[in-house]
Amino acid sequence: MSVESEVSLDGKKLTIAIKGRFDFGSHQAFRDAYERFYKVPETYIVDLKETTYMDSSALGMLLLLRDHAGGEDAEVRVLNSNSDVRKILAISNFDKLFDIS
Amino acid sequence: MAEIHLDPDVLSDLQEVMESEYPTLLDTFIEDSQERVAALRKAGGDAKTLGRIAHSFKGSSGNLGAVRLAQLCELLETEAVEAASDLGALVDQIDHEFALVKPLYECRSELAREKRQR
Amino acid sequence: MSALAPVLEALTILIAEDSAADRLLLSTIIRRQGHRVLTAGNGVEAVEIFAHERPQLVLMDALMPVMDGFEAARQIKQLAGEALVPIIFLTSLRESEALAQCLDAGGDDFLPKPYNPLILAAKINAMDRLRRLQATVLQQRDLIARHHEHLLHEQRAAKAVFDKVAHSGCINAAPNIRYLQSPYALFNGDLLLAAYTPSGDMHVLLGDFTGHGLPAAIGAMPLAEVFYGMTAKGYGLTQTLREMNAKLKRILPVDMFCCATLLCLSAQRRAVEVWNGGMPEGYVHEVATGRRTPLISRHLPLGVLSAEAFDDSTEVWPMALGDRVFLLSDGVLDTADANDQLFGAARLQQVFAANREPDRLFEDIEQALAAFRGQARDDVSMVEITLLSAPPLRVAEPMYADSGQSSPLDWSVSFEFRAQTLKNYNPLPYLLQLLLEVHGLREQGGALYSVMAELYSNALEHGVLGLDSALKRDAQGFAQYYRQRNERLAQLNSGYVRVHVQVAPTDQGGTMTLRVEDSGSGFDVDKELARPVDVDRLSGRGLSLVRQLSSAVSWSDGGRSVCVEFCWEALA
Question: What is the Cα–Cα distance from A43 to A73, expressed in whole angstroms?
């Protein structure tokens, strides 16, 4: 498991990439990834390209990020989920909260 | 084998470490050593007992700077294992060496006491 | 002496040395380094002193009379047990064999003669660091063990409390429920609840909280309370869901929520109403055809959305008596084999296909899981409910505490529920509570609720919404019927349902008259009543039920007004 984050040059977009398992073990690293930035970005990208697995606590972490990013008004996009991960997002109907592609 | 009986550096280190206890240490060593020499004598031809006493004697005389005495004890300890040569002669040499260093220790002990009293 | 390594902490150090001069020398050096010194002239003395004084470190001469240092070291290590008591051998031994002997006996280090005070101090400090490291490790290990014990105790206690709450429903008593839960599934967030509504329908909830352990179990308590409380009072799934969602949203942290499937099985209506938010697909199993209809997750889990955004829309599926509903938690599907492959829905389907005896379905699934992984998980929950003919109607007793002296016996009340209210408000629980103030009606609470529910839904669905009950002839039409119902209800902007209640005392006891009117176009009462009662038909059961349960029924105003009567005898 590893969590990497990167801000775009203009500081408006924060991309968080999770490698390996996205579960409770990533909790602190995931929070750090968005809490450590002084300037608040406009858009958040969660890149799951290299995520092999996610559990319900990972869904909880997405909710935390959404809350941090402004709740109802948050712009959080979840990208590159593989079929297993997408199934989990689909069962939970998280597409109603997040822009998933 | 150099004929050093007492190592003055060791003794001055000891004096520094022991401070007021220095004369007591020397007196204790003399007393202890007398017992050991007697025990060596008493052991006669018992190589094992001779070796054990020599080992212990070697340790304390080494600590007290009796270089030649420690060397003789080590020789006896080694010879006792091999049980080859005449151990009696070595015991004589140890006895002799101790008789030689004993007054030197006594003298230093006396001096140290006097110095403290002044 | 000056250049000694600094002393970390004053220790009590035992010196076992047979040479009096060496003993004196060492004692002095060590005392000067700030430690407390104990001395022994041989091994036996050393062991005795150790047993009484428990020094933290031992300097041990190897060769001593009476008992040598090796044996003394062995005995001291034994006495010390798990604590590390470093033993430094004082020796002029040169032979490697003798040095190995020191280590064998439990020695931790050597100090050669003649002594060097600097090296001695450094070794004592090094050994002391080791000793304290070991002490810390032991202390932490014991602390962890105590915490673990404590946690297990708390879990047992919490489970006992929770079992009382969670199983206060009919989960164990109902003959038509089978379930399987790993013993500590609760502490993996799984929750299973079941209870009867006043009209004899059964509500079932299978939930799965995010996370594990006590935090997951804690949210289960308020959820269970809402479930049981509202089910007993006659609230439908949608109101109960709204309340559960609002409560969880209020009390849970942002990253916690509860995936849940909520069912209402009605033997009377031959249907199951379903809401699934985030749970794996369950199934309605039609025994006659073998078909399994998936109950797909259509919603976000409970506790995620605000009350305004929450979607309470349910789906309704027809069921024949003997048909089954099967629900499961993700522990079943997410059981992983040695290569991290998940069991998955496809393998579950294979088990369904291979199942020959419906009553052995759980066993078949368990076997398949065991064959797949060989090890049971602790978050596996499965439940299967068979639709049986309705149980005798009753209202749970403990709701009433008064003796009936204050029972109101001569009153009337009228309501008019208009379009905006009809859309999302269910007045039945409130009406039932009101009527049950009348002591004499409590005996018949279940029948009363069933009749009210039937009349109200007839007035709303056939009257106000103008739905055709003939649609419910087959499964396809059934689904269409409920789809139309939702659509028309959403668009509703006129119409009403009126409810008039009149309670009056009689010589023998009392009578309650309930009149329900709607703004619809009415129906041909005589024709409807003339139709034969067909038990397997999905429609038309309502009227016969009403006639069966109430003392008298009559229609007027071209079917737009219906009046029922309930009588009771004075209580002894």
Answer: 11
- Tell me the C-alpha distance between C333 and C297, whole Å: 15
Dig out the tokens for C402 from the structure: 């008064």
The token pair at A61 is: 């972490």
How far, in Å, CA of B91 to CA of B80, rounded? 11
Yes or no, beta carbons of B18 and C28 under 8 Å apart: yes
C-beta atoms of C254 and A92 within 8 A: no
C523 in helix, strand or coil?
coil
DSSP state of B11: H
Q: What 3 state SS string does A7-23 have?
A: ECCCCCEEEEEEEEEEC
Disruptive mutation site among C190, C191, C252, C304 for chain A (greatest number of A CBs within 10 Å): C304
> H/E element holding C503?
strand C496-505
Chain centroid to CA C175: 22
- Using a CB–CB cutoff of 8 Å, tell me whether A64 touches chain C: yes
Q: Which pTM does this prediction carry?
A: 0.67
Every domain of chain C and the residues it spans: 12-137, 167-386, 397-569
Q: Which CATH architecture has domain B8-13+22-113?
A: Up-down Bundle (1.20)
Chain A residues with beta carbon closer than 8 angstroms to that of C342: 84
- Distance (Å, rounded) from C-alpha C415 to C-alpha C427? 10
Q: Tell me if there are at least 3 CB pairs under 8 Å linking chains C and B.
A: yes
Contact C567, C510 (CB under 8 A): yes
With respect to CATH, is domain C397-569 assigned 3.30.565.10? yes
What backbone torsions phi and psi does residue A43 show, to the nearest 5 degrees? Answer: -125, 140
> Using CA atoms, how far apart are residues C466 and C492, in angstroms rounded to an integer?
11
Q: Cα–Cα distance between C191 and C329 in angstroms, integer?
A: 9
The pair of three-digit structure tokens given for residue C278, joined into one six-digit string: 């985030």
Q: What is the pLDDT of residues C441-477, one digit of tens each?
A: 888 888 888 889 889 988 999 999 998 888 877 777 8
List pLDDT tens digits, range C59-106: 998 888 888 888 999 999 999 998 899 999 987 666 677 778 888 888
| C242 HSE (CA, 13 A, CB side) | 13
For residues A94 and A63, the answer to whether their CB atoms sit within 8 Å is no
C-alpha span between C211 and C204 (Å, rounded): 22
Given C1, C19, C24, which is nearest B21 (Cβ)?
Answer: C24
With an 8 Å Cβ cutoff, is B31 touching chain C? yes
CA C299 to chain centre: 20
**Domain A2-100 classified CATH 3.30.750.24?**
yes
End-to-end CA distance of chain C: 104
Which tokens sit at B112? Answer: 């140290």
Report the 3 state secondary structure along C16-40.
ECCCHHHHHHHHHHHHHCCCEEEEE
C301 has a chain A CB within 8 A of its CB: yes
A59 touches chain C (CB under 8 A): yes
- The domain spans of chain A are 2-100
B102 to chain C, any CB pair closer than 8 A? The answer is: no
CATH, domain range C167-386: 3.60.40.10
The topology (CATH level 3) of C12-137 is: Rossmann fold (3.40.50)
The Cα C454–Cα C545 span in angstroms is 8
Q: Using a CB-CB distance cutoff of 8 angstroms, which residues of chain C are in contact with residue B58?
A: 92, 113
Convert C499-511 to b/e letters by CB count within 10 Å (16 or more is b). bbbbbeeeeeebb
Cβ-based contacts of C299 with chain A (< 8 Å)? 93
**Chains with 3 or more CB pairs closer than 8 angstroms to B?**
C
**What are the chain A neighbours of C304 within 8 Å (beta carbons)?**
63, 97
Quick check: A96 contacting C, CB < 8 Å? yes
CA C463, chain centre distance (Å): 42
- Residue range B41-70, pLDDT digits in tens: 888 778 888 888 888 898 889 889 888 899
